[in-house]
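Lab meeting, item 3. Inverse folding demo.
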């Protein structure tokens, strides 16, 4: 077992080696000389990635730990970048091996001057190897996923790219750049049901169709059963042809697209529930989306008013439909009656009956919310 002082001398050795002025240029030159596929890359590119890997490895060995998620995210970006540059994974791994050999060779030469024993150096190398093994695994995975995506037909490739975008996090920024979605005002996520016409601001694009110079950049594909788009421009609010609906959320940065997708799905669901058409932003249906997202509260509301449902008996659905329609018509009795093809007095009577059996006053703000929610829950029951 090594003492803290022993390990401190080991850390000092590593930092000294990595900090030597000629080390990085020497390593980069060695990599570009010995690995032909890397030699075609700009020296600054190789140097920048090598410097970052050296710094991360030094921090890991000093702290006697494995790689952090932030370090692994950087490694994923490196694997993706090299795959897009056409550098085979074998060449990437060879370049890392050349760099490792040069660094540890110099560490062995300097160890005696720093009073670091061979055993201590071996322990540090074993720690580094554990860190490096996890790094290599992430690097290989990212590289191969990118190669597979590039080999797919355009529609599948776009769907794969969209999945990377919508996963959020640091890797989404690289995916956004790869897709050409670099709008300075943020990105918007749009969701619609398959077969629905696309919003006017996306032009005549179909899944797999990339943006052209006369249209705002967008990526569209079928993902998890929904027509999904990531746009650099807010979609318009004009009605969608055919009376269909699309939910949208944004603007958001690439790292925030996972949350934006959840909001866009909530917007779509809420808009459908309210009978809305066209492009509906989550902010326009925020209250409704919040209500629909809480199935637990919906169940609690229905359980609490089970006696009222029983009291209404066979008229329960008619009362629920009348109250719900009346509330959605902004409490306009004439409009609600016309929508249900009944006499206005029928609406009045059913609203009054609902109030009597539930104790909810739908004329108040929050009572109206609870009444609409309860009626919707009753109508959703078989």
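The presenter then showed the designed sequence:
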């Amino acid at each position: 077992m090594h003492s803290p002082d022993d390990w401190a001398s080991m850390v000092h050795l590593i930092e000294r080696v990595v900090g030597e002025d000629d080390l990085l240029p020497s390593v980069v030159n060695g990599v570009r000389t010995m690995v032909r596929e890397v030699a075609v890359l700009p020296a600054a590119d190789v140097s920048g990635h090598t410097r970052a890997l050296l710094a991360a490895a030094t921090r890991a060995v000093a702290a006697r730990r494995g790689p952090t998620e932030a370090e692994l995210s950087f490694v994923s970006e490196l694997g993706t970048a090299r795959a897009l540059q056409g550098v085979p994974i074998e060449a990437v791994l060879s370049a890392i091996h050349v760099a490792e050999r040069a660094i540890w060779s110099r560490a062995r030469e300097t160890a005696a001057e720093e009073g670091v024993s061979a055993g201590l150096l071996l322990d540090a190398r074993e720690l580094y190897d554990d860190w490096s093994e996890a790094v290599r695994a992430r690097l290989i995975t990212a590289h191969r996923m990118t190669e597979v995506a590039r080999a797919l037909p355009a529609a599948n490739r776009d769907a794969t790219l969209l999945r990377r975008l919508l996963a959020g996090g640091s890797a989404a920024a690289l995916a956004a750049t790869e897709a050409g979605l670099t709008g300075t005002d943020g990105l918007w996520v749009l969701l619609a049901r398959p077969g629905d016409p696309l919003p006017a601001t996306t032009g005549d694009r179909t899944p797999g169709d990339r943006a052209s110079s006369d249209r705002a950049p967008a990526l569209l594909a079928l993902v998890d059963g929904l027509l999904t788009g990531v746009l650099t421009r807010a979609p318009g609010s004009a009605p969608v042809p055919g009376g269909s609906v699309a939910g949208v959320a944004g603007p958001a940065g690439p790292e925030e697209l996972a949350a934006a997708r959840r909001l866009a799905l909530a917007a779509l669901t809420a808009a459908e529930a309210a009978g809305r058409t066209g492009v509906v932003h989550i902010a326009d249906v925020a209250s409704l989306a919040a209500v629909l997202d809480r199935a637990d509260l919906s169940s609690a509301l229905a359980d609490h008013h089970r006696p009222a449902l029983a009291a209404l008996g066979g008229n329960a659905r008619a009362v629920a439909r009348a109250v719900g329609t009346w509330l959605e018509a902004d409490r306009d009795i004439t409009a609600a009656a016309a929508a249900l093809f009944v006499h206005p007095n029928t609406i009045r009577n059913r609203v009054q009956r609902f109030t009597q059996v539930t104790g909810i006053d739908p004329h108040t703000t929050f009572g109206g919310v609870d009444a609409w929610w309860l009626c919707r829950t009753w109508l959703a029951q078989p």
